Amino acid sequence: MPAAAAFRDSLLRHLTYSLGKAPENADITDWRIALSLAVRDRMVDPWFASARATQEGGHKRVYYLSMEFLIGRLLEDAVVNLGLLDVAADTMHELGLSLSDVLADEPDAALGNGGLGRLAACFLESLSTIGCPAVGYGIRYEHGLFKQSFRDGRQIESPEDWLQQDHAWEFERSGVSFDVGFGGDVVERGGHCVWRPDETVIAAAYDTPVVGWRGNWANTLRLWSAKPTTIFDLARFNRGEYAAAAEPETLARTITRVLYPDDSTDEGKRLRLKQEFFFTAASLRDILRRFGSEFDDLKQLPKKAAIQLNDTHPAIAGPELVRLLHDERGMSLDCAIKTAQATLNYTNHTLLPEALERWSEGLMRELLPRHMALIERIDDAHHQAYPSRTVSLVENGDVKMGELAFVMANRVNGVSALHTDLMKQTVFKDLHALHPERIVNETNGVTPRRWVLSANPRLSTLLAGRIGLGWVDDLQQLERIEPMVDDKAFRDQYAAAKRANKAGLSDWLRDTQDVSVDPDAMFDVQIKRIHEYKRQHLNILEAIALWQAIHDQPNADWTPRVKIFGGKAAPGYVFAKEIIYLINSVAKVLNSDPVTSKFLKVIYPPNYNVSLAEQLIPATDLSEQISTAGKEASGTGNMKFALNGALTVGTLDGANVEIRDLVGPENFFLFGMTAQEVVERRMIEDHAAQAIGADTRLARALDAIRSGAFSGGDRDTFASIVDNLSGPDYFLVCSDFTDYWRAQRDVDAAFRDRDAWMRMAMLNTARSGWLSSDRTIRGYMADIWKADAVHT
Ligand code: C3B
Predict the structure, then answer these.
(1) For a substitution probing ligand 1, which of 309, 350, 412 has the most ligand atoms within 8 Å of its CB?
(2) I need a labelling partner for 100 at 20 to 30 A (CA). Which of 255, 283, 408, 493 fits?
(3) pLDDT value for 429
(4) 46 located within any domain
(5) Are residues 542 and 630 in the same domain?
(6) How far apart (Å, rounded) are the C-alpha atoms in residues 484 and 349?
(7) Domain residues for 594?
């Protein structure tokens, strides 16, 4: 049977026999699930072959432990990587459906908050593309990141329900489950410590295959779901106490019910610690089980397994692995600590002090008594080996998870060059002095399969026509288009692709946001979590100042701009929610202003997620990367924009530094203080007042907010924002405003020469190949994991 007919046959069989639907009764979701199952079938053989090759060759495996995997939609990734795009499109067309409608029907699996979770998803895809044996371990949250809507401009959160529909990608592994305990006590038996938890839940495994480019290799994403050890209390049920009878089940399931809607602050919730231990403990047991099925000598574990802790969330892995090796497998404590240290590695993703997890000793002792004791033993052992007065794992009654992860790791890495340097100078200064070889840098990256090939088909087609498809898994090949930037015909084609993407976005904005924008205006986009350090308020302040300037001279030659914002604020982060309200309030005034709205619009589509990012990034001209220097560990959105030919206006922060080096300073709009200058500026007590005094535009913009220009004349509405900015202004919005304004006017001037702008945009694409997550993963493999790619 020809390939297309076989695929169609498989799809119809799934619709009929897996879903039990007749074609005439099937709706788009039925078709989407049937298509997913037909595609999933094609993953299974490479998946088995990969597992077999790993096992037979005795190869080392990488285990990526992460609280978050922000995978988004999976169908398109799978179709693209398996080379089924044309077949799937034709098949759907024959059935009277459009593939893009079917793809858009998939829920966006938001098992993560932001960059950290999305990075984990890009890494899994790159590991499979490279053919490095790996398992991603995480939590199968019933409810991912909340849905955001706006009511009168304010953020409203509602639960996300991606699992309401069948999740076509996963395989439930009823044979793979582990008991995970909490609480209880520790007793000694036969010279061994035995932990006797007083609460136990079952961790049940669900596997999703992750297939790499060209379908040569597939790894596993294994997510754990919590189940009760006893389903319900029959005696109570028979007495008619139905709710009480179901209590064990409810309590257990609570552990994997929701993703903490928290980006970079530590919520400090007991339930969160339970979640962390739950998935870490289950994953480690699974790793030891797999190791034990292939090898005997546990001391060889570091040769066969590299475990990566994605931030401190799984940092309890240190003491838990020691406990498993020492208490349960009889290895000496010293050897158990050394074996764990040689196996574990830790990635730090933030220097924000409030985001470095600390758990109170009391809570630790109550929930994980044996672990608390082991943390003290680890601390003692470290003190003995490396005498230091300043390094300690427990401080003021808190266990410091960053320090614990560091001490228990073979390698500790930062996620951009600047971030790694700052780690050495600040949070881990003392530990770095004791272990100067331990900290390494692995600058983040993004997968080009999703972020260029799938998200930007017009650009991909253009590239394919010129340089083929080699760039898809060898992104440095984008350099080959650099000589073509001086070819006017190619520039025009590149410009046409961007223009078409913008026109598509304009249509979408008209249909969904009820706002009309000119596709020839500059599309200026800031999409990321809402956080003071990311400074969405600097951006909106500049919009206000620009609006005022246009009013002053409405006949001047302004460069039309559409400012687009996207992002969620943690529900408990009041100030961030005020920023959202301010942006929406400013948008309302500006967009209905008859004098200025043809030059300046502000749009904030709600519920920013991976799918919306895929839509916005290819249509962007200007990427806003304006964090206070020293605060953004890396950023990865900045990379997606540069690859898709958006120019950056940005500070010297995170990976912006490397992006600017790559694309050339003349193709990047730099502004603002350096990390060092930020520290010095903060020492000036009235820095904000000084900045406001020196810049009438800034003073006037703040006055407009204060006087109620965006709050129907009410002076109190945004008082918290104005007071903060004119007072403490910790993130130095005012101090960076003047230079930001200057940079934005440079952007305006540059955008007016469209041809020169396109040349710069093309150079951004041509020179950003290094930003592939394939390069990042190869760095981890060489420097941290000592793992090799396996070829089937
Ligand atoms: C983020 C950082 O804020 C980003 O700068 C970085 O690019 C990504 O991680 C990936 O390294 N981050 C996050 O999303 N959540 C945290 N809790 C901490 C950092």
Answers:
(1) 350
(2) 493
(3) 97
(4) no
(5) yes
(6) 37
(7) 449-771
**Same structural domain, 574 and 440:** no
For the chain, residues with pLDDT lower than 70 are 263-268, 792
Cα of 423 vs centre of ligand 1, distance in Å, is 14
Residues 663-698 pLDDT 10s: 999 999 999 999 999 999 999 999 999 999 999 999
DSSP 677: H
Residues framing ligand 1 (Cβ under 6 A):
113-116, 119, 263-264, 311, 349-350, 355, 415, 444, 632-636, 654
Give catalytic residue positions. Answer: 349, 528-529, 534, 636, 640
Q: Does some domain include residue 85? A: no
Q: What is the chain's percent helix, strand, coil content, to nearest 5?
A: 55, 15, 30
State the pLDDT at residue 231.
76
What distance in angstroms lies between residue 482's CA and the mean position of ligand 1's atoms? 31
Same domain? 419 vs 457: no
> What is the spatial distance between Cα 621 and Cα 498, in angstroms, rounded to a whole number?
8
φ/ψ (deg, to 5) at 570 = -55, 135
Q: Whose CA is nearest to atom 7 of ligand 1?
A: 635
Pairing between strand 171-182 and 154-158? unpaired
The CATH number of whichever domain residue 489 belongs to comes to 3.40.50.2000
> Do the beta carbons of residue 73 and residue 105 sit within 8 Å?
no
Residue of the CA atom closest to atom 4 of ligand 1: 635
pLDDT of residue 267: 67
Residues 740 and 669 sit within 8 Å (Cβ to Cβ): no
* Secondary structure letter of residue 627 according to DSSP: P
Three-state DSSP string of 514-551: CCCCCCCCEEEEEECCCCHHHCHHHHHHHHHHHHHHHH
CA of 314 to the centre of ligand 1 (A): 15
Task: Give the model's pLDDT for residue 30.
Answer: 97
Residue minimizing CA distance to atom 13 of ligand 1? 116
pLDDT of residue 166: 84
pTM exceeds 0.90: yes
The answer as to whether 90 is a domain residue is: no
- Looking at the domain assignment, is residue 32 inside a domain? no
Are 702 and 761 found together in one domain?
A: yes
Whether residue 643 is found in the same domain as residue 745: yes
Q: Which atom of ligand 1 approaches the CA of 119 most closely?
A: 10
Q: Please report the pLDDT score of residue 191 as a whole number.
A: 86
Centroid of ligand 1 to alpha carbon of 633 (angstroms):
6
Structure tokens at 172: 């439930």
Q: How far is the CA of 116 from the centre of ligand 1 (A)?
A: 4
* Token pair belonging to 217: 């290799």
Q: Give CA–CA dist 43/288, Å, rounded.
A: 26
Whether residues 518 and 650 share a domain: the answer is yes
- ipTM of the predicted assembly exceeds 0.95: yes
Question: What pLDDT is stored for residue 64 in this prediction?
Answer: 99
Total count of domains within the chain: 2
Do 439 and 481 fall into the same domain?
Answer: no
Q: In this structure, what DSSP letter does residue 782 have?
A: I
Both tokens of residue 491?
Answer: 């520039």
Are residues 494 and 369 part of one domain? no
Strand pairing class (398-400; 394-395): antiparallel
